[in-house]
Amino acid sequence: MDISRVLVVDAENLICYSLAKMLKRIGCAVAISNTGADANLKLESFNPDLVILDASLPDIDGLQLLGQLKAVNSKLSIIFLSSNFHSDLAFQAFSLGVEDYIGKPFNMDMVEQSVQKVFVRKNLEADIAVVQPQLRKKNLPDKLVGNCPSMVEIFKTMNTCAQQDCKTILILGESGTGKELIAHGIHDLSARKDAPMVEVNCASIPDNLLENELFGHEKGAYTDAGSREVGVFEQAEGGTVFLDEIGDMPLNMQAKVLKIIENRKFRRLGGSREIEADIRIIAATNQDLSKMVEEKTFRGDLFYRLNMMTITIKPLRERKKCIPSMVEYFVERLNDEYGRAVVGVSSEAMRVLMAYDWPGNVRELRNAVERAMMLEQGRILSVDHFCQETRSSNLKTGGCVFGCAVPVAATIALPPEGISIEAVEKEYIKQALARYDGNQTKAAKCLGLTLDTLRYRRKKFGLESYPAQKAQNISTPITDSVDVQVPAKESSAS
Where in the chain is CATH 3.40.50.300? Predict the structure, then answer.
């Protein structure tokens, strides 16, 4: 905490002086009031953390003032002083929320000890207030984010599924698009949110163990079954079972899952009693189930039952309008996780992120933002830390690594002996500045840079006064085998 502020409210100047001396000695800032009216004024102007309040004041009863102070600031700490120490007064004071009740005459050490206790508690509460939200955000999974039309429709469908308690839902989409987040979102929005949600990855469990995982077994059901075990469908009673990668489920198991969807009943392995299952089943896959049905690698009857309520989430390359809001969300989450204060990404970096096709979808975008935040020392994520995305974007658009809008037909041949990338960058900047007679705004636009980035790189390469000497050789070749000419004005108009 900052310096603790204490307001002493007592009609006796000697007591005020003695308390103020003790409080200043232990490092507190002190204000003094001899009346209730002045105390109310000091509450606003001085904004105390603690009030030491006497029960007897010339213009107001101490208990009445106590109620007024608490009405203005319910979290204000108050130590109550009284020369009439009796149980009724103490009870009323504590019921109004005082920290301590001390009788007059008092021992100064006793008051000091009471003050120290108040501020130890306040410091602990302040520390907990900082730490708890961070821990809570670290442990919570990411939420589904996006503001493009397709995502808005998904949010509407999720809400419908949750509110109508749809018992069977199918989620389709490429890996990394957020199918699991949709499943969790439906569960959390529904009346089943307080019941368990149990996940099973059908691709990660061997075929011979999957049935036991889902249905459980009775004691003696097989050689090593020494005791009864409940399966996923029992564990999730009243809640949700999420069958991820259901396209990888073996055909014989598909028939058993179909039965529980139709009858809402199942048996444990080795059991004879049918168990009712009050559960929602959400299945997800990145495979084309309709094609698998045609190829007879997935049961048609199960597909048609699952396909009753289907949510299809598009790959990120088809909903790039969502990228800015996703990046903002990930930056906020990762700020909490790493204790950073990053405010966003540069316009140049955002241009690269929007140009990249994201084959790994949202999962890849999150990883890219996290990597950039680990590398970035400043508060803005620069394009320099999005290496993989920059490379892919440049290969696709034919742009150079510095953001110049070089036509795809332009050829940059890497000489056998290698080349200095910084020299290439410097030459491009010199040519752009020379073309526009030193106009930095136009040069920056031509190079695809922000004005701040151009200024920084101009200073870095010692080009602050350039092109004052442009009458000299403007375009000095770096090597005979590299063509680094800035495109013609017509090409750079964009």
Answer: 149-314
Q: What is d(CA 378, CA 373) in angstroms, rounded to the nearest whole number?
A: 9
Closest CA to 306 of 320, 322, 285, 325: 285
* Other CB atoms within 10 A of residue 125 CB: 12
Contacts of 308 (CB under 8 A, 6+ apart): 166, 168, 170
Secondary structure E strands in 309-467: 310-312, 344-345, 380-381
Which H or E element spans position 275? strand 275-276
Q: Is 318-397 CATH 3.40.50.970?
A: no
Backbone angles phi, psi at 135, to 5 degrees: -65, -40
SS3 464: coil
Return the CATH superfamily for domain 5-136: Response regulator (3.40.50.2300)
C-alpha span between 94 and 87 (Å, rounded): 10
Task: Please give the CATH number for the structural domain made up of 410-494.
Answer: 1.10.10.60
Question: Which residues are bridge partners to 81 per DSSP?
Answer: 54, 102
**CB of 425 within 8 A of CB of 457?**
yes
Taking every pair of Cα atoms in the chain, the longest distance, rounded to a whole number of angstroms, is 99
Half-sphere exposure of 369 (CA within 13 A, CB side): 30
- Has this prediction a pTM greater than 0.85? no
Token duo for residue 258: 């179909």
pLDDT tens string 175-224: 999 999 999 999 999 999 999 999 999 988 888 789 889 998 888 777 77
The boundaries of every CATH 1.10.8.60 domain in the chain are 318-397
